Amino acid sequence: MPRRDPLDLFLDSIADANSTGAAMPETSYYPAISLALSAVGDTLSPKVLCLQHPSGGTGIPDFGLFERTLFARGDAPAWRGGIMPGRGVVEAKGLTQNITTLLSSRQVRTDYLPVYGLVLATNLRQWRLVDASGARESLDLAANTATFWTLARGRRPDALRQQFSDFLQRCLLWRAPLSRPQDVAFFLASYARDALIQVEEKADLPGLRTLRSALERSLGIAFDARDGEHLFRSTLVQTLFYGLFTAWAGHDHTRPFDWRAADYDLNLPVIRLLYNLIRAPQSLRPLGLESLLDSATATLARVDRDAFFHSFDAAHAVQYFYEPFLEFFDPKLRKQLGVWYTPPEIVEYLKVMTRKAANEPVMREVMDKLNLGYAYQEGPEFKAQMVRDNESFKTLVNKLGLKNN
To answer: Beta 48-52 vs 126-131: how paired, if at all?
Structure first.
């Protein structure tokens, strides 16, 4: 049986509870929150357990988020026993609770943040992940209470399903060590997917049309009529976020990294153009992408660089990392484009074996008979062959009296 989507689990549970007419404004919807967090937590490694009203600690948060590796199967986590909710705690209120009031409440600010360091706060419609520095992640499922109930009782956009799942996964991983390329790729790709949604929602922005023409000229590509608009927006977002990673990978880390200066790390005109337009009030700033780029930058600041670059040769980081990034961002496009990274050792092995096979007399004889001798030539030899062939064709054209129009 396929795993149900976290958003559907959450909203279906809320709609079911509300349909009874007996639901309490807050506590009756706790199971919905637990279902959504558990659905995401079960996919992680190590898994994250969402435990309602765990014992011990300061006050009683609505949920504690625990790594499964910290306690034996069957044991009930108790903070007095030394087990802390390593991935933070959750404070939930009903739909009528103002999210700003919740974030500034005594429970969040005084009881939980000083002790547990990370709080996921929600009024069901709005979600915020906060630490001592402020909001780290945010998501609004609906603009107001009325549209939230419409969402709970009706159809949900696939894009929102992806956003909610990505948001919860980022929250559950915020405290996790960040060193594996696939984990870093998930974070950057999930921010990029959120950015693509925002670009799609404001597709009529005049600055996008201007940028499309500039990108076509800078990148030497043309976006055709059939899939052109979506491909342009996807290219824009990928260029922004993969450019961010590329700049970070080559950045002098004796200084703090900031995406606003990433164009200087790369020194690429197209990147400089994009980041300047993103900050320009009369151009692309209305897209609201700055906060997502800020979040991506904060994520990169958490990466254990030594462990990250130990996974592969740092010199090949940019080309290697695009494979897992595109796999998370758009797996269909990755398959369509055939983006697969081949380690240099494999490339060199294939090169040696191909050259060995090409030098076999029997193979050379067959290739020459098919007029494919150039297929096994190295660069200088191939170039000389092309010069000879060009001269031969020029001689043939002159003999036949053909004219070059």
So the answer is: unpaired
The answer, yes or no, to whether residue 145 has pLDDT greater than 90, is yes
Angle of CA points 325, 38, 83, to nearest 5°: 100
Tell me if residue 137 falls in helix, strand or coil.
Answer: strand
For residue 63, list its beta bridge partners: 52, 90
pLDDT digits 0-9 by tens, 267-284: 666 677 677 778 776 778
1-175 has which fold?
tt1808, chain A (3.90.1570)
Report the relative pairing of strands 63-67 and 126-131 from DSSP bridges: unpaired
Alpha-carbon span 130 to 121, nearest angstrom = 8
Yes or no: say if 186 and 169 are a contact pair by the CB < 8 Å rule: yes
Among candidates 196, 177, 399, which has minimal Cα distance to 292?
A: 196
Peptide bond into 46 cis (omega under 30): yes
Q: Show me where the domains of the chain are located.
A: 1-175, 177-341, 346-400
Structure token digits, residue 186: 């998930």
32 Cβ partners below 8 Å, 6+ apart? Answer: 9, 10, 11, 13, 14, 17, 124
What average pLDDT does the segment 168-192 reach?
A: 94
Cα angle 59, 86, 6 (rounded to 5 degrees) comes to 95
* Distance between CA atoms of residues 97 and 122, nearest Å: 9
Say how far apart CA 194 and CA 289 lie, in whole Å. Answer: 9
Residue 67 β-bridge partners: 48
Residue 72 Ramachandran class (φ > 0 left, ψ -120 to 50 alpha, else beta): beta
- Phi first, then psi: what are they for 92, rounded to 5°? -120, 140
Beta bridge partners of 121: 91, 128
> At how many degrees (to 10) do helices 290-301 and 228-249 cross?
40
pLDDT at 340 over 80: no
C-beta neighbour count of 78 within 10 angstroms: 13
At residue 220's C-alpha, the angle toward residues 215 and 222, to 5°, is 70
Token duo for residue 21? 């007419």
C-alpha closest to that of 33 among 69, 65, 76: 65
Instruction: Look at residue 106 and tell me whether its pLDDT is greater than 50.
Output: yes
